[in-house]
Write a structure and sequence with these properties.
It is built from six helices and five strands, in the order E-H-H-E-H-E-H-E-E-H-H. With about 160 residues, the chain is an alpha/beta fold. The strands form two sheets. The protein has a three-stranded parallel sheet, with no helix packed on it. The chain has a two-stranded antiparallel sheet with strand order 4-5.
Length: about 160
């Protein structure tokens, strides 16, 4: 079986205008999360990646423009590399859809996605959508998952 290479990046919490004071303090006193992300992406830039898995809290309480800038960063550092995304409790779903995905009518409903990369199926559910940090999988998400895995993936 062909080797599949991916990077998993999680909880980048890039600071933006809507971020909490705590995140501004982290940026001032510890390090800027965006600088850390840029360094990571530059190191990954020379790697033969099949996809990147992004899991939650991309930008900290961001708006459409923040998600668009986040996407441009990935597109410039890792051009053509597919991005599989799951959102976290600090992500704004509508802003993500409009800015990151480019959906003009992006709404605030749960973000669910299925992508197949070289035969591997990646299913993204949205556990913090209703219950925040506690997370939950409501019936409609379990139905979505069941439908997504009904046919076996090649890998």
């Amino acid at each position: 079986m062909e080797t599949l290479r991916f990077a998993h990046i999680s909880d980048t919490h890039v600071v933006c205008s809507g971020s909490s004071e705590f995140m501004f303090q982290v940026r001032r006193e510890v390090r800027d999360p965006k600088d850390t992300l840029v360094k990571c992406l530059k190191e990954l830039g020379g790697q033969p990646l099949d996809f990147v898995l992004l899991t939650g809290d991309l930008v900290h309480e961001g708006e459409e423009a923040d998600y668009a800038a986040y996407r441009r960063l990935f597109d410039s550092c890792l051009p053509g590399v597919p991005l599989c995304v799951a959102l976290g409790n600090h992500d704004h779903r509508g802003a993500f859809r409009r800015g990151f995905l480019g959906q003009p009518q992006g709404d605030d409903s749960a973000y669910l996605a299925v992508q197949t990369v070289k035969g591997l199926r990646v299913v993204s559910l949205d556990t913090p959508y209703i219950d925040g940090l506690a997370g939950s999988l409501p019936e409609e998400q379990l139905d979505y998952l069941e439908q997504a895995v009904r046919e076996p993936a090649p890998r």
